[in-house]
Structure formats: structure tokens, C-alpha cells
Specification:
Layout (H helix, E strand, L loop, with lengths): L8 E5 L16 H13 L3 E2 L2 H9 L7 E7 L3 H14 L4 E4 L10 H12 L3 H13 L23 H29 L8 H4 L3 H9 L3 E4 L13 H19 L5 E3 L9 H7 L4 E3 L15 E3 H13 L1
Parallel strand pairs: 1-3, 1-8, 2-3, 3-4, 4-5, 6-7
Helix pairs in contact: 5-6
Length: 313
């Protein structure tokens, strides 16, 4: 059983596969989403609408068995595959949107993700090509680090997932990482322009979500992977810009946020208060549900693992 302790939280989703959308590491089908919703009900949870969750949190009325669905990154696959499932069930969710793609920017994080799964037979094949490319310049063995201990709160990551993320975030940093990845795109003749319409939602779709009772929230403007390293001013700019665009699109006040890559620091809470944000979500279950700006979330990958264990027992 889910550790037999009910704890209010969000359920976090990213990629879905199906018509027009490729299968990738951790992506879910519409059927799998249905199974997750059923599993949660069997565990004694009540999945409530985003508006109800928001209201109950603000007024300190949330119950331990109440959970809400959340979708990060404004991905088109979520709109095409998950949203119809929610509609059929009369459910709404939080949709956390980073806004640079609606301004025409091909945000690299998602471009690279699509490249990994459209040009390689497996993510492991991609990792070996990536590690080989950087080894021409960087000797990873001279870094005395146990990759298996990196990102301990994400148990679903494989060893190479951790190694890749460590190299990306701790050794290369954003700019150098982009140089290598853009080199790989060229090596494999991958043109991101061709895919922008399958990667992100458009303004109209975000507007539809908002108008059908879903709660639209901030997820920064450019989705940095290490927001915690940003100055207060840079962080404020990332979120304020995101808020401006989303309020233009939806015509409503934006009062929720989720933190890209679970990255935040001691300035973040003050920034959210300045922007009038009432509810914020983390990307793991490590925090207790104490602060409304740092509500725990369970990653769908962890839930799939628990469902497997549950059926085996």
C-alpha cells in the first residue's frame, strides 16, 4: 500500500505518447493515465479538481487523502493525449507553462529531449554517443564523483540518467552543454523547426484549458535547469515575464507555480509573495505539506513503479 500513509500532494506528469507523439523514456499512454487514476482511487485517495485544490489549500481545508493532477512544460502531447482523458472524467488539473515557446523560441530542453528519442533507438544509445562526444575534450574519470548518489530523490533515474544530468548541470553548465548538443543535432541532421508544432501547446490551447476550469500556473519563461543559481533579479524576471504572458493569454490572475527541475532557493518564496502566487509545487515528495508554496508532488514514474510492486505482491 502507498506506505499506508495518506498525504495530500500533486501528481506530476510530463510526456505522453500516442497519435503524432513518439514514445520516450517515462512517457505514458492515455490507457496508462487511466490506470494511474484508478490505482489512486483504490489507495483511498480522492482526485479533486484544480480549482477545488487551490481553494482548499488557500483556506487550509485540504484533507490528507486529496490529490490533484499537474502537468509541467506546456507540452502538446499533454493537450492531445491527457486532456481528453480528463475531460471524459470531468477532471481538471494544474498546467504549469513556461512561456518562451509561445514567443517563438525553440527552447533547447524540449528540443534535445525530442531529438534523443526520435534519432536514437534507446536513451542508452544516445548517452553513449553524448559521452563519446564530450570525452574528446573532457576526462570525466578525473572527477571524483559517485554518479549513483546524484539526485537521490528521483529513484526512477538510471545510473546513466544521473551521470548525464551531473555532467550537464555540474561539469558543463548551460552554455557548454548547448554547444555539445547543438553539435549532435548537426551530426544527426535534426532540424528543430520541423517539430515545434508537435512539441508545445499554442496560445489558443492554453486559453482553452483556462476556459474549461483548469488552473494555469507559472513554470518560468525559459525553463532554466538550475534556477537556484540565479540572482533574485534574474529569478524575478523569469517568473514575472511568464506571469505577464499567461495573464495576457488567459485574462485571469495567475496564482500558482511549479519550480522547473525542482530548483529554488531562499529568494524564491519572497518572489512568489511579490507576484501574488498562492500555491507552489515541488517535484518530489521529500518535503512535508507545511508551506503552501512548497507542496510535495509524486512523479508519475514513481507511481508506475509502485503499481508494479503492488500487483507483484
Amino acid at each position: 500500500n502507498m506506505e499506508n500513509i495518506l498525504k495530500a500532494h500533486g501528481i506530476m506528469f510530463h510526456h505522453f505518447h500516442g497519435k503524432n507523439h513518439i514514445e520516450c523514456q517515462g512517457s505514458l499512454s492515455a490507457e496508462k493515465l487511466e490506470e494511474i487514476l484508478e490505482f489512486y482511487k483504490e489507495q483511498g485517495y480522492r482526485i479533486i479538481s484544480a480549482e477545488e485544490f487551490q481553494d482548499k489549500c488557500i483556506h487550509n481545508k485540504i484533507k490528507e487523502n486529496e490529490v490533484v493532477l499537474t502537468f509541467d512544460d506546456a507540452l502538446k502531447c499533454q493537450y492531445d493525449i491527457a486532456y481528453p482523458v480528463l475531460q471524459q472524467r470531468g477532471l481538471t488539473a494544474y498546467w504549469f507553462i513556461y512561456t518562451s515557446p509561445i514567443c517563438g523560441v525553440l527552447e533547447k530542453l524540449e528540443v534535445y529531449h525530442h531529438f534523443r528519442f526520435s534519432k536514437f533507438r534507446s536513451v542508452e544509445e544516445f548517452y553513449s554517443a553524448f559521452f563519446e562526444l564530450i570525452s574528446e575534450d573532457i576526462d570525466i574519470t578525473k572527477y571524483d564523483v559517485d554518479f549513483s548518489k546524484y539526485l537521490p530523490n528521483s529513484p526512477f533515474y538510471t545510473f546513466n540518467d544521473r551521470k548525464f544530468r551531473y555532467i550537464r548541470d555540474q561539469i558543463l553548465g548551460e552554455e557548454k552543454f548547448h554547444v555539445y548538443m547543438d553539435q549532435m543535432l548537426r551530426n544527426y541532421n535534426y532540424d528543430p523547426e520541423k517539430y515545434k508544432d508537435v512539441l508545445w501547446m499554442k496560445r489558443e490551447e492554453i486559453k482553452v484549458l483556462s476556459e474549461t476550469g483548469n488552473v494555469i500556473g507559472l513554470h518560468s519563461h525559459t525553463h532554466p535547469t538550475k534556477m537556484a543559481s540565479y540572482t533574485k533579479e534574474e529569478q524575478l524576471q523569469e517568473y514575472a515575464l511568464c506571469k505577464k504572458y499567461l495573464e495576457e493569454i488567459t485574462g485571469t490572475a495567475i496564482e500558482a507555480v511549479s519550480y522547473p527541475c525542482n530548483s529554488y532557493n531562499e529568494d524564491t518564496e519572497g518572489i512568489m509573495n511579490m507576484l501574488g502566487i498562492q500555491i507552489g509545487f515541488c517535484a518530489d515528495m521529500s518535503k512535508p505539506f507545511e508551506n503552501k508554496l512548497f507542496i510535495p508532488r509524486e512523479d508519475s514514474a514513481n507511481i508506475i513503479r509502485k503499481m508494479k510492486e503492488y500487483t507483484q505482491n
